[in-house]
Amino acid sequence: MHEVADAVAAARDGLATPRGRLRIAAPLLFSQLALGRIAARFLASYPEVQIEAVAEDRLVNLVDEHFDVAIRINPSKDSALVGRCFAKDRLVLAAAPSIQMPKGDRDKPFPVPAVVTPSYRDGDIWSVRNGQFTIEPRPVLRLSSLLMVRDAIVDGAGAAMLPQSIIGSLLEKGELVSWGIAGDEVELWVLHTSRRLQSPKVRAFVDFMCKQYPNGSFTIPIR
């Protein structure tokens, strides 16, 4: 019914101007790193839209909870939602230069001190370089925030698997060293509930998100 009301309002206004409240659900890390600036830029282009963004990692129900769009990482392919991939990221195994890079292999993982998140399970093995290089994490810290993990390994606590987007500048400055890329690229999508009744504000936001990352890589906006 919200989509029908938006469609009727858009038809009445000539389909020209995005307006009204736009509710956005986004993962916590993406929200902390990028969504504030993106929302401000969008508002500058579309001043008649009022943005309400909710940052949390659970999968919200767009219809039941009255969200217009959601930012999701590697969304399920059987999802009823539609949308576009606007950027990609990748996981990097990294550590401070003071941590010696091991010389393990796939058959004999090398134990190293590690900073992990709650998703880590005892016995997990980290593999990089297409499986040719493996390590056995020995957790020394368990932290719930990837930004905390980043700060901990910069200070030499151990190695960690982190998105390239949040450590790229530290790798360039030599404060962290990459031990290799892990797995496939991570896709970031902007999703909505219906292509047929897509309102001007939703259509404008989807297009705007894709223009923020013209090279397809997720990078943190420069201050």
UniProtKB/TrEMBL annotation:
Domain of life, source organism: Bacteria
SUPFAM superfamilies (alphabetical): Periplasmic binding protein-like II
Transmembrane segments: none
One Pfam family of this chain: LysR_substrate
Domain LysR substrate-binding: 17-209
InterPro entries in UniProt: LysR-type_TF_proteobact-type, LysR_subst-bd
Family: Belongs to the LysR transcriptional regulatory family.
Name the record gives this protein: LysR substrate binding domain protein
Source organism of the structure: Collimonas pratensis
